[in-house]
Each structure stands twice: as C-alpha cells, then as structure tokens.
Design a protein that fits this description.
single chain; alpha/beta; 3-stranded mixed β-sheet; 11 helices
C-alpha cells in the first residue's frame, strides 16, 4: 500500500536526495501514521472498555500519543520546508529535529501517566473480561504496527530521517507492548489471577525507557553531534583526490537540518604553486562537493614548504613519533623558525576527544624525543581536538 501511495502522491519519488521530495516522503508517512494510530486507538479503547482491562486502555492511549507524535512530525516536516530568511540564514531544517524532541517528550509523559494507572490497578484490581472481539482487535493491532514499523524504518533510512527512524522504534515498542498485553490477558484467563495492573506498570516502564532513548537521539543533532563517518570519509576522499592537494586537516561539519550542511576544511598545497591556479582548484572542489554531496564547503589554503629538507625530515620524525603513541593522533601546519641560540619547531597536535592519557604528559614525551635529536630544538605545540 505504501508503495502505491508514494507513486501516487510524490512527484519524482525516486530522487530522494532532493529536499522537497524528501519532505514529501516524511509528510506522507506522518499522515498515514495519524490515520492508522487513530483507528488503533478507537479499536483498543472500545476493547479495553468492554473487557475492563486497564492494560488495553493504556495501550490505546499509547496509540493516541503516537497519532499526536505523527501530527507533530508532520508539522516539523512542513516547517522545515520554509526557506532561509534574514533572521534564519541557514534555513529552518532543524524544525524536524525539534519535532522529534517534542514527540519523545510526549511519549515520556504518557509513560509517566501509565505508571500511575498501573500502580492504582495493582492496589485496586478490577475484574477483567476478555471476548473474541478483544483478541481480534489486539492481534490486528500487532499486525498493523508491524507494517508501520517496517514502513517507517524503510523510508527513514531511505531519506536519512531520525524522526521517522524514531517513529519506527516507537512502532516496534508498540508491537512488543501489545504482545505483552495479549500474553498477560492469556495468563490472567489461564491462572485465574488478575495481572492487568502489573502488565500496565511493566508496559509503562518500557515506554519510559524507550522515550528517554528517543530524547537522547533527537537532542544529539540539536546540540551538535559528531558527523556521520560516511560523510566525513566522502568529503576527505573527494578533496584529497584532486591534483596538487598534499593533505587535509581541520574538517568541521555543521548540521542545520537534513539537506542543509555546511563544512570547512584546510587543504595543504605546495607553497611554490601558483596562487591563481590554487584558487581555481579550490573553487572547483567547493562546487563539486556541493553538487555531489550537497554540502556547502569552505576551503582554507595552507602553503607547505616541500623542498626544505629540515622541515620534511622533522615532519616525518614527529608524525611517526605520535603514531607510535596513538594511531589516532596526527600533526599539521609544521614550520621551523630558526633563531640564533635555538630553533622553534611549531606545529598543531590533533588528538581524539576520548584520549585517555594526560595531554601534559603527551606533550612532554614529544618534547623530550625532539630535544633528544637536537637540544637546540624547542617544540611549540598547540593541542586541538578532532571535530570528526
């Protein structure tokens, strides 16, 4: 069914890299989610009311919260389409992330309310009566949620949407919770002991656990999470593939919403290379990255002295030294400043954020090794962390 709707309502549906097409996928999926969840809420609420099972009523309100979540997702996709303006020069793409956060908080609020309901049912249990209609509604609900889970995961991955993937996780949770309701109702009938309150409490705690995970996932891109390794590798490989590029460093990527990413990077080129030609190469790289990867890239040009034997040997020696300490450590922007009584070896030292040793000790080791080769050498080390 979803494939039919996509082909029917989304123009150029195969071009998922296009921002408008991507948002059309998100809006269509959200609308389908609203319709399914409202129907599931109505069915389960009727079944829960007829049977007197609090766990089924609790599960129905979970579906109602899912419908609300889909409405918020729909609003988020719609608002993220707004073009850049004077007050928001980077666009409104982060509305999608904000809508995902609101959805997560809503799920948490439902979970807290269900905890109270579960405790009340344990303290004050009521008689539960299951009918054939109850079983049919619950089984159909599981099948529908399985279908919604598959659709959200599939489309979420297709358009790289954290909101839809989070909705897929929520649908998966609904499959598990409704299955739990079915199992608890069977146990209640077989053993003759009412575990409805305990099932409600268990489902509420599960929903809360899921909600806090969703909150973290949606907060990450708003706070500024580490960029995807695939994107970092693609930019690095693409930039490095051009002629006369000796190396790159200080790649920084900023995410202002899906399809709206900005990046900056330093490229190393021979200091004797013609400046006009260097500028032309950099322009070509920036244009190609935007066209192929959809990233607005700004490149800083770093001239490197390639014919200075002292600089080259020093760069090789220090590079090997830091790699032996930790393979993730690197150096760049090395230059030699000669003086009368000593020579400064100036360079940037890049370390990962999870580097577990003392930075002071690391600098001491490097300084000691450099001075061992020549006590007139004075390392001037600037430590920075890798952004990617």
């Amino acid at each position: 069914m979803m494939t039919f709707l996509i082909k029917k309502f989304i123009k150029n549906y195969e071009n998922t890299s296009d921002f408008k097409v991507r948002n059309s996928y998100g809006k269509l999926t959200s609308i389908v989610g609203i319709i399914f969840n409202v129907l599931l809420f109505a069915g389960k609420f009727i079944a829960g009311t007829l049977s007197g099972a609090a766990s089924i009523i609790a599960d129905s309100f979970n579906n109602l919260s899912d419908a609300s979540s889909s409405i918020i997702s729909l609003i988020g996709f719609k608002l993220s389409e707004k073009p850049a303006d004077r007050d928001h020069p980077y666009g409104h793409g982060r509305y999608e992330y904000l809508s995902g956060l609101v959805v997560s908080v809503l799920v948490a609020a439902i979970g807290i309310n269900l905890v109270k309901t579960g405790i009340d049912k344990i303290v004050n249990p009521t008689e539960v009566k299951f009918t054939v209609l109850t079983w049919i509604i619950l089984i159909v609900s599981v099948l529908v949620k399985l279908y919604m889970m598959i659709c959200n995961y599939s489309i979420g991955k297709k358009i790289s949407s954290k909101t839809l993937i989070a909705t897929g996780d929520d649908s998966r949770n609904d499959v598990l919770t409704t299955t739990g309701v079915i199992v608890s109702s069977i146990i209640t009938v077989v053993i003759g002991f009412n575990i409805d309150g305990y099932a409600t409490l268990f489902l509420a705690l599960f929903i809360l656990y899921s909600a806090f995970g969703l909150i973290k996932d949606t907060l990450d891109p708003i706070l500024g999470v580490k960029p995807p390794k695939e994107l970092v590798d693609n930019i690095s490989k693409k930039v490095s593939s051009y002629d006369n590029i000796l190396g790159i460093h200080d790649l920084i990527i900023h995410d202002y919403g899906p399809g709206n990413q900005f990046a900056s990077v330093h490229v190393e080129m021979d200091s004797k290379f013609d400046v006009i030609l260097a500028h032309d190469i950099i322009d070509n790289i920036e244009n190609d990255i935007l066209k192929e990867l959809g990233v607005n890239l700004v490149i800083h040009y770093d001239p490197v002295a390639t014919d200075d034997e002292t600089v080259n040997s020093m760069r090789q020696m220090i590079s090997e030294l830091v790699k032996n300490i930790n393979n993730e450590i690197s150096i760049h922007d090395l230059r030699v400043v000669k003086g009368v009584t000593h020579t400064n070896i100036v360079f940037d030292l890049v370390i990962p954020y999870d580097f577990d040793a003392s930075v002071k000790e690391l600098k001491y080791k490097i300084t000691k090794a450099i001075k061992a080769s020549d006590d007139k050498l004075v390392p001037v080390i600037k430590v920075e962390y890798s952004y990617t």
